[in-house]
Amino acid sequence: MAVRLLPALAGAVLLLPHAAAAQGTPAPPAGGESAASAAAPRVVRGFRVVGAPPVIDGRLDEAVWAEAEPAVDFVQERPDPGRPASERTEVRVLYGDDAVYVGMRMYDPAPDSVAAQLARRDAGGTFSDWAHVLIDSYHDRRTGFRFSVNPRGVKKDVLHYDDSSEDVNWDAVWEVATRVDSLGWTAEFRIPLSQLRFSARDGERVWGVNFAREIARRGEWSWWSPVRPTVGGKVSQAGELHGLAGIRPSRRLEVLPYSVASVTRAPSDAGNPFYQRNDGAVDVGVDLRYGLTSNLTLSATLNPDFGQVEADPSQVNLSAYESYFSEKRPFFMEGSNIFAFNVGTDDGSGESLFYSRRIGRAPQRSVDAGDGWVESPVSTTILGAAKVTGKTAGGWTVGLLDAVTGEERARRVAGPGSPVVREPVEPLTNYLVGTLSRDFRRGGSALGMMTTATHRRLDGTEELDFLRSSAYSAGITGRHRFASDTWEASGYLAGSHVRGSAEAISRVQTSSAHYYQRPDADHLDYDSTRTSLSGAVASFWVGKNGGSKLRGGFGGHLRTPGLELNDLGFMGEADQVQAFGNLNYVQYEPQGIFRRWSVGVNPFSMWTTGGERIFTQVGHWANYELTNFWDGGWWVGKRFQALSNGTLRGGPAIARPGGLRYNMWVNSDNRKPVRGSFEVWGGYENDGDGWDYGIAPGASFRPSSQLNLSVSPSYRRNNNTWQYVTQRDALGSRRYVLAQLDQTTVSVTTRLNYTISPTLSLELYAQPFVSAGTYDRFMEVTDPRATRFRDRFREFGAGEIRYDADAGEYAVDLAGGPGSDLVFANPDFNFKQMNSNAVLRWEYRPGSAFFLVWSQGRTDSLSDGSFGMRRDFGRLLGMSDDHNVPATNVLLIKFSHWLNF
To answer: How confident is the model at residue 305 (pLDDT cuts 50, 70, 90)?
Structure first.
């Protein structure tokens, strides 16, 4: 198989999915240039403060500011790359024994036009002018700490890593003040040295530094040290800060204790001995950070609380594969870039060796209530977690994370008057992740590695014998830029190994990620006696990412059938060989009605390691931004008939019809107080008459600088003519039942943000969600690989299938005799859910916060596939005359206080 795929891997030319391309890239100066060919970096000198440091009030009126040399002559990154900024900006840098001070003067002839919207800290999508300070204190040209502020004092801090990637979840404790005056506006920063990372050494040191300014009304970004769109990355294009002498990194100790009190009121449950109308709880915990060395930081958490985290979006998953949800817990989000080892070829897949949401996950065993009641924990208690991150003196970036989750038990009562029985649902588990990486050639090359380990204390617990007792993974990754940094080659190789009982490893083999039991897969060997399983994944990419407007590349990806990462990582399917690449053209400079635009194509093919072709697609995408600040784009993909090895869920592979997929979107001018958006997507199959479409109009309103309202409804229709229903043994063979599914899904996501001050905000969120599906035209698979759609199935006749409404079951008589050969539950569904919350957040002092949170959840599911907009939303919102969905309300108060020693 590998020999047959070599031509495809070498010759594929494909593009990344449109979502990645939609990010856009700013325009280059004429001719283009690489980082290696750029002129010597710009230099600014810091001035040491001998007496009293400046007062952080935004005025810049202390005499010491005049002593520092200014950084001037900013250059546009967009809309006109390489041209001087439209307005003058001056930046001065001071430093003392414990902090760096930055003063920025943004001149503007029309101060009344300076955009200055209030928002919560780190809020994205805020229409406003901004001032940015980027500090590369490691001076590795790969890592930068960015401190940003708008004219109203709204703060944002971002960690830049791998030169071009950003972690907006990184938070530091720093001060800033702003002021709008007749000359424009000013920003005065105080950045404690304790919030930066740098090695201890004597003499003068040099840091990387850059300053940026955004003028919102013009859509303009300008930098002091020019950022060229023809060069990948931001940090590597920074200038240099000289003159830093006599500063020493501090040995940091930060402690953040918290206390939380909550009360939950759930719908009444008559007879349930576990029910409490008002269930109160009080808890305490602590997070801490300690500087082990000047470059290494220990972060730890005991009994962490995640009570103020927003709920995951609602969805109905009719596939056999697990849904991916992004991490939202602060402890795991911070420094997540260090623990990243992605193994997915789709940026949105989330596939990785380490998926932090495995830690504290919902218990993996469910207990059947029978005729009684069960109370089971919704998540696993994290007893404690700690991590060490930073850089060694030798330039190695290190990360070590360890977490322990407690044993969880459910309480079950068989019936009224029966005793309470405690049953295990999750064992005591230890999770370990280690990473090590290093950059070479001033960031032009890099090498990294990661290893993970999961250990569960099963102790012969029969109820939990289906879980793996241990799981391991390890991988190495690297990249190398060449041809004046305009080309890059990258790749990785990783392996996995899981151990457990024969039952546990059998569950792995037969899971949706593997399907070793497929009867037509000669290359797979299912063994019910195995007690371990190993696999590997490898990928490579060679592409042009700079130097000119024409970009492209090609790559390949391989997963062996035994790859299993889902104990501490995340993956969908194993057993894959992929060939892909990209070819695109980016126009950076304004051209006619366009501020910028880009187009590309993306062919893609995938096989099993047994040579079965399971996917082929050729896509085309385009993105644009107009001179009136509207933007949009489209993506269209032509799919060809292939095999689906997962539709029958362990059954034989079945032919998948070819077809067309599309997605188009447009957004109006974000400078306006009222902004609209519209997206439409869908597709159809060439054979089988399957189709789907969706529309998502959206609107945001900004009636004042403090208030922002957004409403995003979504409507989706899906007509799947071969939706999987079930499989049963009948008449001596395995029968696979499918049907036509008619599904309607409607949701409305609403957000209201009211910002009283940069440290005090109120956020409201609500998402009602309804999805209903009706199944008909039930059929069985007869010839799964037939060329024509109708030859693959046999539809059950009117005399074969009947529905028992009382039992909620379908019965099928295949042989024409008495009785039924196939019996299965009615798959129709009507699922309703609404998650809503209100969060009052007050940062009453730097690093310390008070939360007042109210949340409400409503969930209901019926075996009724009909959809009625007014009826279903009325029931969900409690406004119906029948079957109103009951609500669970939670009121939470949290208090945290940052201490710095």
So the answer is: low
**Cβ atoms of 575 and 3 closer than 8 Å:** no
User: DSSP label at 362?
Assistant: P
* Residue 88, pLDDT above cutoff 50: yes
Residue partners of 70: CB distance under 8 A and separation at least 6: 90, 91, 92
pLDDT digits (tens, 9 = 90+) for 8-42: 333 332 223 333 333 333 333 333 343 333 468 99
State the pLDDT confidence band at 170, using cuts at 50, 70 and 90: confident
- As given in the structure block, the two tokens for residue 645 are 């090895």
d(CA 799, CA 731): 18
- In this prediction, residue 309 carries a pLDDT of 55
Among all chains, which residue has been given the structure tokens 């093919």? Answer: 605
AA letter at 331 = F
Using the predicted structure, report yes or no on whether residue 328 has a pLDDT greater than 70.
yes
Buried b (16+ CB within 10 A) or exposed e, 215-226: bbebbbbbbbbb
Per-residue pLDDT reduced to its tens digit, 451-483: 999 999 998 889 999 999 999 999 999 999 898
Residue 383: C-alpha distances to residues 99, 300, 388, 408 (Å) = 36, 11, 18, 12
pLDDT of residue 25: 31
User: 429 vs 293, 407, 461, 699, 884, CA distance in Å?
Assistant: 30, 8, 14, 45, 40
704 vs 701: CA distance, rounded Å:
9
What is the band of 307 on the pLDDT scale with cuts at 50, 70, 90?
low
- Spatial distance between the Cα atoms of 132 and 148, rounded to a whole number of angstroms: 4
Q: How far is CA 182 from CA 127, 176, 186, in A?
A: 22, 20, 11
Q: Would you state the torsion angle of the CA atoms of residues 88, 93, 99, 105, taken in this order, to the nearest 10 degrees?
A: -20
- 512 confidence band (pLDDT: 50, 70, 90): very high
For residue 818, cis peptide bond before it (omega within 30 degrees of 0): no
| More confident site: 321 or 806 | 806
Is 663 within 8 Å of 681 (Cβ atoms)? yes
Residue with tokens 């204390």: 457
Q: Are 647 and 724 in contact (CB under 8 A)?
A: yes
Question: Which residues are 184's β-sheet partners?
Answer: 107, 181
Q: 516 with 525: CB under 8 angstroms?
A: yes
Residue 507: strand, helix, or coil: helix
Distance CA 853, CA 309 (A): 10
The b/e string for 51-69 (b: 16+ C-beta within 10 A; e otherwise) is eebbeeebebebebbeebe
- Maximum separation of any 2 CA atoms in the chain, in Å: 101
Residue 719: how many CB atoms within 10 A of its CB?
Answer: 16
Structural domain spans, the chain: 31-244, 295-304+328-574
Question: What is the distance between the alpha carbons of residues 398 and 298, in angstroms, rounded to a whole number?
Answer: 11
- pLDDT (0 to 100) of residue 786: 96
CB 454 within 8 A of CB 429: yes
**pTM for this prediction:** 0.87
Query: What does pLDDT average to over the chain?
Result: 90
What's the CA gap between 841 and 848, in Å, rounded? 10
Which stretch of 75-79, 231-235, 807-811 has the lowest confidence by average pLDDT?
Answer: 231-235
Spatial CA neighbour of 432 closest among 372, 359, 363, 485: 359
Which overall architecture, per CATH, does domain 31-244 show? Sandwich (2.60)
Measured distance CA(202)–CA(218) in Å, rounded: 45
CA distance 223 to 211: 6
Instruction: Dump strand ranges (E) for 216-295.
Output: 220-223, 239-244, 253-265, 279-291
> What is d(CA 22, CA 740) in angstroms, rounded to the nearest whole number?
34
